[in-house]
Amino acid sequence: MANDFTSSPLFERVERARRRKRKLKETHITLAHGSGGRAMRELIEGVFLEYFRNPLLEQLEDQAVFEVGQTSGANSTRLAFTTDSYVVDPIFFPGGDIGYLAVNGTVNDLAMSGARPLYLSAGFIIEEGFPIDDLKRILESMRAATQEAGVEIVTGDTKIVQKGSADKIFINTSGIGIIESGSRISAARAEIGDQIIVSGAIGDHGTTVMIARGELELETEIQSDTAPLNSLVNEMLDEAARIATVDAIHCLRDPTRGGVATTLNEIALSSDVYVQIYEERIPVREEVKGACEILGLDPLYVANEGRLIAVVAADVAQAIVERMKSHKYGQDACIIGEVKAEPKGIVAMQTGFGGTRIVDLLMGEQLPRIC
Amino acid sequence: MANDFTSSPLFERVERARRRKRKLKETHITLAHGSGGRAMRELIEGVFLEYFRNPLLEQLEDQAVFEVGQTSGANSTRLAFTTDSYVVDPIFFPGGDIGYLAVNGTVNDLAMSGARPLYLSAGFIIEEGFPIDDLKRILESMRAATQEAGVEIVTGDTKIVQKGSADKIFINTSGIGIIESGSRISAARAEIGDQIIVSGAIGDHGTTVMIARGELELETEIQSDTAPLNSLVNEMLDEAARIATVDAIHCLRDPTRGGVATTLNEIALSSDVYVQIYEERIPVREEVKGACEILGLDPLYVANEGRLIAVVAADVAQAIVERMKSHKYGQDACIIGEVKAEPKGIVAMQTGFGGTRIVDLLMGEQLPRIC
């Protein structure tokens, strides 16, 4: 059946479109350029990469990995370095706030390279008139998040702009981590036969933030999943090393902007493989499903802030899932799909009804200011 | 004469005020909290440090310095890490733009620790509707600046916010550098007898940006001094090592927000020394002097983006100045003052008329969004 599907004319068309060089057609920035989807990829590949081309940036990972010290060899140190700005609206929401996001998001981007996060920077842009009590609440969240993740904020910057020149508060965090395990995790390392793991139910964060905007007067119990995932990754690396080698973990990504669909597309494109997932295996809370229907969203494209996608060798997959289940942030971990050869660069989902649909990069905007 | 001055009741009052624990009295953020002056220090010491207290952050340097790899000893690597957000208004101005500032500012914060800047991150917050041609112009500036400084942008992030939620474009850059020289530069290392060097004429950047806002319809030839100072610092370290030891360079700071006055106050406070400067020795362009008079600004408090203040051992000072003069960005380098013992934590300037006035931390706001 997969064969019928992959030889369809639709499939060929999608594949051809994929291989085209991405070029930006717009003359002005739109919200879609920040969506995590196709427009954002066009902005990054068609504009940013044109100016900043270098081997580290071109990998389009969520972090750069490089060696410092004694030039490569036994005495060199492998570091990961990453940055993210947080502009979430509203700044406080059930289960978290911009402070938690700012620490956990950067901790997670480091952890997804197999790094142990060490140090964070924090850059604040604050609108004149912002209540200092709100600032203190955010700083308290950041303090709590750094303590849980075992990192320290060691350098910072604060800029104040006039009322109306920014919306309340934006926070940038950058982070440095050290890769001690010898792992070589990359979105480009998915191999045929690999299993795809998700660490828990998807769509909680994005749905929570959309509801918290209050435009729909929806009342639910949904909370953001924002969490630091470095200790979960540690356990996964440890389990892989125990039963095989840390190298059995091929890709790790946190499906933030653009959600699981976008992350899987990035992996399919970077690794030049076909990713097949199964709708019935993907954990989505009933409340999230319901809220997404009302909001007109597809949970596959909704941002998560405390979940990860892992692509691992088939022979270690089940053991890693079991180990994840024993961790606070991996209780609902499960295998949702696998990596196949053809058609390359494509993600497709076998639906509950037995059909297969292409899970493409997001077109247009979905959720501005979700993180 | 200095003795008469320092035993005056005014002096004692200032000193007493200095020693008081800084506490924030305001309930809402004001522009003064971003000025680089007293209000900003109160925000940082009274709020941020309360939540993020740790030995690296408490040093209040412009960058954190730490070791990674083999725990301290011959095989460990000393790194510097820094962050800055750029919110300058207007984004384009004579002599530079927000892109140049964003790269040069972070390169300079690294260089001021004696580090060789290696890698930068770039986080963009862009307002919906921003012209992509303007973005390209900024990216071209960043590319040119990274090439001149010999650094690479290796990781990035882009967030788009709705029209009206940010003013055009804000850029955060964080940077990592490696300290290879064994220098131990710190604002806390000024010693009695040290000479104070400035690398060139002061006030150009801040004055240029104020004029570029067009509120005064002033026409001048003044340009921003934005420049990467890492190669100048290299030459200074090299000269110090040649005639004595790199350790002869005690403090290095780039006098950005709050200008030379603020930087000298930070050094006086951190090192617990008295800093005396001489008005007639401080290089200020005639045009900058004139524009500052019209704008009601004191050049001592105006931001620079391509200048440095160095506090160095007296026996190497003149040689370092000579070496600086042979460098493109140090042609007007000169000694503007010296470090004395008492009254501790104070900066004062001997004026052209022979009097002495205290150069205090800036009260209130001076120049919002100058960098």
Write the layout of secondary structure elements.
2 copies of one chain form a homodimer.
Chain A: H1 2-6, H2 9-19, H3 38-52, H4 55-58, E1 64-68, E2 77-86, E3 92-93, E4 96-97, H5 98-111, E5 116-127, H6 132-149, E6 152-161, E7 169-178, E8 195-198, H7 204-212, H8 230-243, E9 249-253, H9 259-271, E10 274-278, H10 286-295, E11 309-312, H11 314-325, E12 334-340, E13 346-350, E14 356-358
Parallel strand pairs in A: 5-6, 10-13
Antiparallel strand pairs in A: 1-2, 2-7, 3-4, 5-7, 8-11, 8-12, 9-11, 10-12, 13-14
> Rg of chain A to the nearest angstrom?
20 Å
The unreliable regions of chain A are none
Largest sheet of chain A: 7 strands, mixed
Coarse morphology of chain A: globular
